[in-house]
Amino acid sequence: MTASVFLQSGDLLPEALNISFKLVPAIMVVGMLALFLAIGYVFKVADTEGMWVAGRSIGNVENGMAIGANWMSAASYLGLAGLVALAGFYGLAFIIGWTAGYFVLLIFLAAQMRRFGKYTAPDFVGDRFNSDTARAIGALTTILIGFVYSVGQARGMGLVGLYVFGTDYVTMVIIMMAITVGYLTISGMMGATKNMAVQYVILIVAFLTAVYVVGFTGGYSTVLPQIEYGRLIGELSAEFSEPFANAGFYLWIATAFSLIFGTCGLPHVLVRFYTVENEKTARQSTVWGLFFILLLYWSAPALATFGVDLYDASQYGPTFAANGGMSGGEGDLIVVLAAQLSNLPTWFVGLVAAGGIAAAIATTAGLFITASSAVSHDIYTNIINPDATQRQQVFVGRATIVALGIIVTITAFDPPALVGELVALAFSLAAIVLFPMFFLGLWWENTNRQGALAGMSVGLALWVAAVVNDLIFHFSDAFAEFVPAIGAALVGTPLVFVITIAVSMATDEPPERIKKMVRQCHSPEPMGQQQSAEDVVMSADGGQSPADD
Question: For 445-474, how does the pLDDT look when each residue is reduced to its tens digit (9 = 90+)?
Fold first, then answer.
């Protein structure tokens, strides 16, 4: 196998999943969606503080649950098990990468980012590097991440809706995305956060129940399926269990690296630190979030293994074995398929499916809010119209959510890869372009505007080249081998660090006021709930703000 591991999405085998209208699951899903809309309405907002950062009022456990739901996307709930089912050992790179990144966040970014105290990731980049150009590149990157990441969520919602309602895939993508866009345009970050806490409860109950019930009814496990599934590994094919059978060592490391540092650069993850009242709560909510994520990630390989064995033993296994094995469609729905092939009641399989929809909607909400804030706050207000009223800002943000929803919906009709792989592209971009700016911006006060612009520009160009080479033109096999789109950060992130540092050292140091803002991010002195590092520095310096470029 080459460096590109993008698998064909493939058609579903309708009989295998029993695609038809199911009354009880349909009632469950409709009721769940109605609940989301109601919560969004109850917590609707009209000001920018509520729209972008939920008034900085979210507590540690609630924010931890929101982090978990924000993170437990269709890529985690559906795609992670699907990647393990289709690629075996290679799928573990996703589990390691998507988990380890939170330790880096906890140690190096969570509290410091909260003390910086802005609204968005591009806001940090623009203010820290004193540059509207850097802000614009950060906003463009945020929008790209939101788009690529959300296409995977829309595919997941469409596939699960297909199982529940028995209609066609395109119709389900349209309906699910319309509902998601509807409640987001009303609620903003405040309603989205309240919904995420509810969505996390739904998705984790559905997933863990599926792991235990499928494991017990299939005779795979009794008490702890997360460990007991190991005895099955030797009975499955070498392509599933043998290390590096589906992808070489370099690609495995490159993928894990991209996912670890991509986690630290994702705008919809970092904005969660802006929604809490102080840096202590930011740290605590990160720990809670990691625990909530652990519950699903520890269980995903077990359910994938059960699903593969059930599928191989079913009447559909030989059909697809003759064609090279399970298709991407089956892989992306292995969580639901495992429950279906265990001959569990339809309502139970519907519960599992509902969890997948909740996971996809929760993450889409976070992505759309951060993308809309990048357009409204960072581009429209900070660059185009500095005198914009709060009403105008909220209107532009809501219009962005609608526009992005339409584009994502159309793209999801025929996505280029599996759910998990699409999401991994967004991680690769975040790791290359944004993570170096966050890390250096918070930990090296001499990082300057010129260094940031050089590093971000090179990183963005490298990522685009890798994606085009892997998915569109295939202009160089050697480039694909060493800079695969899904793991481009292994080369790209160190390169961006080197360029940013070298250019910063070769040019003038940033203004002293910018350095003071960086120091304030590490100060032990407490700050007010609504204060930013810039506010503290401005107050100490007589109210002057840093000059814009």
Answer: 999 999 999 999 999 999 999 999 988 788
Question: What residues pair up with 58 in beta bridges, in sequence order?
Answer: 276
- Tokens, residue 119: 């609204």
How do the domains of the chain map onto residue ranges?
A: 25-413
The span from the CA of 69 to the CA of 65, in Å, is 6
Dump the DSSP string for 267-288.
Answer: HHHHGGGGGBSSHHHHHHHHHH
Q: What is the pLDDT of residues 107-120, one digit of tens each?
A: 898 889 888 887 77
Residue type, 319: T
Phi/psi for 309 (5° steps) reads -65, -45
What is the CA angle 309-311-316, rounded to 5?
145
Query: Do the Cβ atoms of 244 and 252 come closer than 8 Å?
Result: yes
Contact between 13 and 156 under an 8 Å Cβ cutoff? The reply is: no
**The two structure tokens encoding residue 449:** 């505007």
Residue 276 per-residue DSSP state: B
| Of 524, 281, 405, the residue nearest 397 (C-alpha) | 405
Cα separation, 444 vs 503, in Å, equals: 14
Q: Report helix, strand or coil for 345.
A: coil
3-state DSSP call for residue 482? Answer: helix
Q: What type of residue is 244? A: F
- pLDDT classification of 483: cutoffs 50, 70, 90: very high
Residue 60 CA from chain centroid, whole number: 20
394-429 residue pLDDT tens = 899 889 999 999 999 999 888 766 666 777 888 999
- Global pTM value: 0.84
8 Å CB contact between 425 and 98:
no
Using alpha carbons, select from 258, 250, 271, 252 the residue that is nearest to residue 426: 258
Extract the tokens encoding 469: 């080479």
CA atoms within 13 A on the CB side of 154: 32
Q: How far is CA 529 from CA 53, 189, 192, 522, in A?
A: 12, 17, 21, 16
Q: State the Cα–Cα distance between residues 406 and 178, nearest whole angstrom.
A: 9
**489 near 261, Cβ under 8 Å?**
yes
Class of domain 25-413: mainly alpha
Tally the residues of the chain: 549
